[in-house]
Backbone:
């Protein structure tokens, strides 16, 4: 723990601005003394019971009528003595309450300090703490549900279960390796089956983790194509609002425009770009440079081409440029004809119009297919979140794969045992116990004050 962990900290836990109520949180050893000084009620505060009180400042001046809830250690969020004051939601009231608390010896909490204390007091593991950070930041409801699943600590259980199975196997192997004449080797097929099963479970954790990351971080899609193909019309149609200017003048969009929609609960960042054409003036040229950057940074390229006309040279070069990356090809303006689309003969391309609901459904489906194989994400399963968790699981997958190969080839058992040992120890980096201060700092620094 760093210096100042014995301080009593206070913060406004609700978002800034005016609301119906605001919550001021206090945690630390002096909480009770602060409550006695600043909170007046008919009866003393009882643990976990909301009591209607008057909050005063250090001179006894009345600040607000509020609900006060006391939490006794260790049955609180932080594991310390805590007090929550649910005041009226005026920023003036909360500021005055905070000022009074600080005047009586509390210190303003740093971002994430409440959760940091919860972690150090054993109230949650590091993974759960990271989930709180995600929950605070969650953009879509799916992301919120995913963070919730991890809060329960289910991930740590699964990793511990895999580690226990490895430990057991290692113990059985140790005897046979150290005393080959006295202790018989455990049956190889059984060992092989166990290693394969654990490997598959780790693979599943990694896969779910990648899905979870997608839900948290989103998928970026660059909408690119020649001028006038209908890129901005597509952005507006998917968004359901007239965000970008649409006109029949080629070169309407000059700057990139970014908007986020949700598909299957995944935030999808759509970037509308300036149309690409060879002979552009200087201003348009600057826009086209931005298009190139957007195309380079997005994971998926969504090519919009005018399918009613003959496919222009720019479109052909764009098709060639994106051949080896994740892309969706959309021939627009089918209501005007589809000669261009037919001439290209691309069976995977979507042919339709941005004005047609079915086309939009196909396009959303195509994004889901490229982004997450179109499989609905099972967010109730816990999943990896932090980088060190991915590292630990990747290391263990690699070790178990090597052990599996060695067993299959019938090599001496001590080689496989060495790999299983390696898998066992890298998984140890998973739990909070071995989390380095740097990791911890990284997680807590993402919090806002009051969390
Ligand atoms: N008939 C028909 N017209 C369309 C369709 N989609 C777009 N348009 C029209 O095509 C013209 C160009 O549309 P935009 O969305 O501005 O095209 P853009 O690709 O963003 O063009 P730039 O920004 O200039 O690169 C507008 O007049 C649209 O109304 C479609 O499916 N059918
Ligand atoms: Mg445009």
Residues:
């Amino acid at each position: 723990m760093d210096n100042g962990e014995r301080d009593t900290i206070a913060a406004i836990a609700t978002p800034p601005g005016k609301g119906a109520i605001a919550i001021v949180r206090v945690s630390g050893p002096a909480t009770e003394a602060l409550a006695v000084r600043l909170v007046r009620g008919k009866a003393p505060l009882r643990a976990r019971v909301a009591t209607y009180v008057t909050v005063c400042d250090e001179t006894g001046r009345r600040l607000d009528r509020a609900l006060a809830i006391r939490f006794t250690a260790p049955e609180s969020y932080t594991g310390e003595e805590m007090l929550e004051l649910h005041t009226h939601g005026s920023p003036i009231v909360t500021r005055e309450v905070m000022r009074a608390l600080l005047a009586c010896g509390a210190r303003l909490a740093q971002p994430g300090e409440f959760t940091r204390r919860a972690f150090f007091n054993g109230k949650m593991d590091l993974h759960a703490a990271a989930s709180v950070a995600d929950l605070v930041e969650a953009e879509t409801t799916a992301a919120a549900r995913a963070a919730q699943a991890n809060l329960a600590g289910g991930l740590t259980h699964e990793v511990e279960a895999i580690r226990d199975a490895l430990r057991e196997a290692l113990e059985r192997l140790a005897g046979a390796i150290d005393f080959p004449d006295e202790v018989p080797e455990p049956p190889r097929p059984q060992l092989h089956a166990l290693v394969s099963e654990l490997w598959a479970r780790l693979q599943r954790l990694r896969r779910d983790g990648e899905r979870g990351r997608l839900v948290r971080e989103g998928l970026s899609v660059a909408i690119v194509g020649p001028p006038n193909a209908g890129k901005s019309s597509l952005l507006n149609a998917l968004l359901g609002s007239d965000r970008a200017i649409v006109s029949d003048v080629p070169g309407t969009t000059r700057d990139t425009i970014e908007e986020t929609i949700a598909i299957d609960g995944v935030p999808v960042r759509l970037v509308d770009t300036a149309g690409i054409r060879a002979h552009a003036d200087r201003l348009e040229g600057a826009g086209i440079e931005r298009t190139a950057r957007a195309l380079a940074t997005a994971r998926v390229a969504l090519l919009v081409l005018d399918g009613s006309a003959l496919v222009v040279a720019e479109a052909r070069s764009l098709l060639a440029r994106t051949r080896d990356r994740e892309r969706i090809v959309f021939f627009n303006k089918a209501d005007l004809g589809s000669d261009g689309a037919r001439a290209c003969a691309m069976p995977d391309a979507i042919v339709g119009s941005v004005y047609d609901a079915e086309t939009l459904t196909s396009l959303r489906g195509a994004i889901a297919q490229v982004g997450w194989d179109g499989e609905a994400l099972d967010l109730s399963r816990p999943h990896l979140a932090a980088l060190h968790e991915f590292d630990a699981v990747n290391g263990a997958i690699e070790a178990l794969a090597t052990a599996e190969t060695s067993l299959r080839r019938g090599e001496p058992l001590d080689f496989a045992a060495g790999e299983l040992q390696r898998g066992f120890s890298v998984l140890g980096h998973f739990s909070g116990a071995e989390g380095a201060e740097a990791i911890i700092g990284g997680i807590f620094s993402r919090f806002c004050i009051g969390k």
About this structure: The domain at 218-372 is CATH 3.40.50.300 (Rossmann fold). The CA atoms of residues 70 and 276 lie 63 Å apart.
